[in-house]
Amino acid sequence: MSQLPTLYGLVATTHFLLPKLPCVMSPYIALMLWELVLVSSFVWPDHLEVICTAARYDVTVWNRSTSKCDPLISEGAKRGESPEQTAAACDVTFAMLADPAGAMEVACGPQGAVKGLSAGKGYVDVSTVDDETSKAIAEAVRKTGAEFLEAPVSGSKKPAVDGTLIFLTAGDKPLFERASPMLDVMGKSKFYLGEVGNGAAMKLVVNMVMGSMMASFSEGLLLGAKTGLDPKTIIEVIGQGAISAPMFAMKGPSMVEGQYPTAFPLKHQQKDLRLAVELADKVGQPTPIAAAVNDLYAQAKSNGLGDEDFSAIIEALKVNVNA
Ligand SMILES: NC(=O)C1=CN([C@@H]2O[C@H](COP(=O)(O)OP(=O)(O)OC[C@H]3O[C@@H](n4cnc5c(N)ncnc54)[C@H](OP(=O)(O)O)[C@@H]3O)[C@@H](O)[C@H]2O)C=CC1
Ligand SMILES: O=CCCC(=O)O
Q1: What residue stretches are annotated with the 6-phosphogluconate dehydrogenase NADP-binding domain (predicted)?
Q2: Which of 21, 68, 163, 297 is at a distance of 20 to 30 A from 229, taking alpha carbons?
């Protein structure tokens, strides 16, 4: 068993990486079940299979707000004292941070993971950041002799719980291969996109489209409602046509009720739109729709909606311009 790789969930978060137990079995929890016997009768059969066949890793976790690690510790994970100590203790370190500043701080800060890395180790950054940040972290990691993989994910809380995330990876191919069994526990698919920066760019393109779709969907629901249409019927009609999307079907009903249970926080959607617009500017690609949508999300964030789900963008459009 000592030959098994260790895995480090560097940052565990309430929104994303810490689904509530014992109702569901998170793939992140699954990863820590190295040689532990599953006792929860709430575990879905599919997860049981995944855990038995793939998820036998020894996990050490660290999070800035340490209490967020407690549920994982109580399931058998070890507590890391700092990013540095945790990376030093593990073969492969996964990082999941809010934004570029957080990703840099945890990788390269005074007690950053880079200080605990050395040849033979790997650092996988799963955060959604811009390509420049990813490249800076890659350079710092590689200077230690360790390997780097960027691996932002498409998919939110439920796919994380179900182990059906989509990994958009780029960087050191040997680390991609070494980390693949771990990615397969957490995800349903993975793309290897070549040079560092390509994974970040792919993620920003996807989230730029997603943010615009959600804003447009919100406008449609509100316009329809103002003309007297039933929003539930609008969702049904959209769901049967060429523009049907799982996102509309999943979020639409709760949006109609004015409920926005957070899976993907609005503040992070705005961060991704901002980064996408900056990337577009850098490469000289006009993105006027994304720029306008970014302004709308920024306004929603400054109006206190940042911690709501990004579908709360509909609230920013609930104004009566004829009043
Ligand atoms: N939620 C989702 O559905 C998805 C999110 N993502 C991306 O994943 C990342 C995480 O998202 P999510 O979990 O929702 O975000 P949260 O805001 O819930 O969590 C952010 C995490 O980053 C930590 N953090 C922030 N700044 C620092 C810092 N300077 N030093 C140390 N730790 C820091 C926070 O620590 P603390 O707990 O102490 O505040 C927390 O653990 C983001 O990049 C997001 O865009 C990607 C796909 C889907
Ligand atoms: O970055 C967040 C993505 C959310 C999703 O793909 O549903």
Answers
A1: 53-194
A2: 297
